[in-house]
Amino acid sequence: MANIVSVNISARKGEQKHPVPQVTLKLRHGIVGDAHAGDWHRQVSLLAEESVDTMRAACPIPLDAGVFAENINTTGIDLKHLPVGTHLCIGEAEVEVTQIGKECHSDCAIKRAVGKCVMPTEGIFAVVVREGIIRPGDEIKILEVSK
Which of 25, 39, 55, 99 is the most buried (most CB within 10 A)? Predict the structure, then answer.
């Protein structure tokens, strides 16, 4: 079973996100209270805990939830291989995958410390298609896989 490990937000872009007890996903917005929210194609970011664990093995600094600026840490789901267009039910909400990976910022502290960052190749981005609250422990279900 796939689950949420952590939900994370930040007040400003360019800052590490920090875990919170729950987040509210809003249509055409993303996560209420998060700096990356807005009416665009990368409202919510997800990163598998398994990807973070790979980095933890090679990194001399602690890698807490949100360190890669991800909103949602997951376990038990192979995020990086989900095609764009896939719909995921997460807790009460539903999101649609819009992008796999992204360009890494050259000043990324993790990339400087370790030499690489997992977000550009293993992080995914989504838009909210059904509003709701999500919390650590909530289940993630693949509803529809785009062809």
Answer: 25
pLDDT digit string, tens, across residues 5-32: 999 999 988 778 999 999 999 999 999 9
Alpha-carbon gap, residue 122 to 83, rounded angstroms: 12
Separation CA 128–CA 89 (nearest Å): 10
Domain map of the chain by residue range?
Answer: 2-144
Name the phi and psi angles at 55, rounded to 5: -70, -35
Query: Dihedrals φ, ψ of 59, to 5°?
Result: -105, 135
Looking up tokens 């997460």 gives: 90
Q: 60 Cβ partners below 8 Å, 6+ apart?
A: 113, 114
Name the token pair of 62.
Answer: 């602690």
Which amino acid is residue 47, in one-letter code? L
CATH of 2-144 among 2.40.33.20, 3.40.630.10, 3.40.50.360, 3.40.630.30: 2.40.33.20
pTM value?
0.90
DSSP annotation of 80: G
